[in-house]
Amino acid sequence: MFNRQKAIIIGGGISGKLAARVLSDFFKEVIVIERDNRPIGPFPRKGARQGEHIHALLLAGQYGLERLFPGITEKFYTTGAVEMNSTKDLSWFHHGVWKLRYDGHYRTTLQTRPHLEWHIEQSIDNLSNVTVFYNQSVRNILYHAKKNRVYGVEIVDKEKNIRTLTADLIVDASGSSSITTSWLETLGIQIPREQAEIGLTYVSKFYQLPDNKTRDWKIKMIYPDPPAEKIGGTVSLVEGERYTVTIMGYQNAIKEKEVVKNDQGFLELAKKLPQLDIYHEIKDGTPLSATSIYRIPKIIWKRFDQVKQLPNGLMLIGDTICRIDPVFGQGMSIAVFEALALQKIFQDGNCSLQKNIINFHKKARRIISPIWNMVVTEDFRYPGIIDKKPISLSIQQWYAKKIFLLSSQHQDIYDSFAKVMNLLEPMTILIKPEILKRVLRHTFSKK
């Protein structure tokens, strides 16, 4: 069954766990190096500071996760996660209009990130050839210069004990602040980057909301209408009959010190949303947690696929390659897509390990590129994020805005848009002749 001996994965977050699941089918032994303590339940962990904030696994990501871990979706529900109808149970104010609500027969899951990650963790525990080394950090990558090959890592525990591990494959899934980029730079290897300074801040709090028989949604989203509006928010039912409330602000629009002073500070921030719906929901609610802050100063795509001299035996995955704007909820789904791509690459043919690595980086580029373009089309509506906008960007933004507005009037257009947002279909379905005609009619007939 196994044609290779050992793989080492740096980082035990979602991308690292998914990589471990896939590689366990192709390597005799898989070792995951994780800085955090061994989890004891579905609780936030230090190494995933975003874990206390709103998370979403889009439809395509959920379907892919089920392929990797058959039965995991049902486990989510039996332990408290919330099943929702993605177009009926979502109340969404977007670019100044409310989206239509109807039964599109799309089912997805509302849950906290710790809840989702805990179930993945338990599935990984059942893999006999996967070992997770907790409370360990990678302090150095072992490299054979003449062969241009990575062959292991030096790890250190909390007591400063150091040991060396060697492997056929080293996978860096440790995130945007990984050791790999700086280490490669010491070798004189520069990583091309695409990035944008978005100045995004997440502020979140858990609430118990009073009973309300008129509450006909499971998640409500209030999105800003850029560039004039910079603050948006979401309130979502999650496991434990709790609601998680996340308010986000672009370009450092949120004054954090005022928000964290007390519960009233969070309520005052909710009053600044384009609609007061979330404020009215939580003003009589009971706070269940302290206020959490998470900052995303910039989004960045490290183009490892363009590096010709990347050392052999080294593969990058997840946020180590691309840290995307989390507001759109695509990060975890990208991780799932990459894991499925990795699985297919190893399943297909008898390529060398290095050829598989090269093929994966190319496939990761194809996964990320359309999602990155979708995200920056929206982020770049704010002035100052980039110095100069390409001409085509203005056209894309104009067309996207038309789709947003028409999604409040036409079910078929919203249905197509929902498929694109959930990564079920490519953006090209939004330029089908019948949709294009509606956009042009809306443009030239509107007074």
Q: Tags for this entry?
A:
447 residues, alpha/beta, FAD/NAD(P)-binding domain, D-Amino Acid Oxidase, Chain A, domain 2, 9-stranded mixed beta sheet, 5-stranded parallel beta sheet, 13 helices, 19 strands, 34% helix, globular
Provide the fold topology:
Elements: E1 4-10, H1 14-23, E2 27-33, H2 59-68, H3 72-78, E3 82-85, E4 90-94, E5 97-98, E6 107-110, H4 113-125, E7 130-133, E8 136-144, E9 149-157, E10 162-166, E11 169-172, H5 179-186, E12 193-208, E13 219-222, E14 231-238, E15 242-249, H6 256-259, H7 263-270, H8 277-282, E16 286-287, E17 292-302, E18 314-316, E19 322-323, H9 331-347, H10 353-379, H11 391-406, H12 411-421, H13 433-445
How is this structure best summarized?
With 447 residues, the protein is of the alpha/beta class. It is built from 13 helices and 19 strands.
Describe the structure.
The chain has 447 residues and is α/β, with parallel strands linked by helices. It folds into 3 domains: 4-55 and 114-192 and 303-375, FAD/NAD(P)-binding domain (3-Layer(bba) Sandwich), CATH 3.50.50.60; 197-297, 2-Layer Sandwich (D-Amino Acid Oxidase, Chain A, domain 2), CATH 3.30.9; 391-445, no CATH class. The chain has 13 helices and 19 strands. It has helices at 14-23, 59-68, 72-78, 113-125, 179-186, 256-259, 263-270, 277-282, 331-347, 353-379, 391-406, 411-421, 433-445, and strands at residues 4-10, 27-33, 82-85, 90-94, 97-98, 107-110, 130-133, 136-144, 149-157, 162-166, 169-172, 193-208, 219-222, 231-238, 242-249, 286-287, 292-302, 314-316, 322-323. The strands form 4 sheets. Strands 4, 5, 12, 13, 14, 15, 16, 17 and 19 form a 9-stranded mixed β-sheet that branches. The chain has a 5-stranded parallel β-sheet with strand order 7-2-1-11-18, with helices on one face. A 3-stranded antiparallel β-sheet has the order 8-9-10. Helix 2 packs across helix 9 (331-347), helix 9 (331-347) runs antiparallel to helix 10 and helix 11 crosses helix 13. The longest helix has 27 residues, at 353-379. It is globular and about 65 Å long. The protein starts with a strand and ends with a helix. The mean pLDDT is 93. Pfam families: FAD_binding_3. This is Glutamate synthase subunit beta. GO terms for molecular function: FAD binding. InterPro entries: FAD-bd, FAD/NAD-bd_sf. Residues 6-344 form the FAD-binding domain.
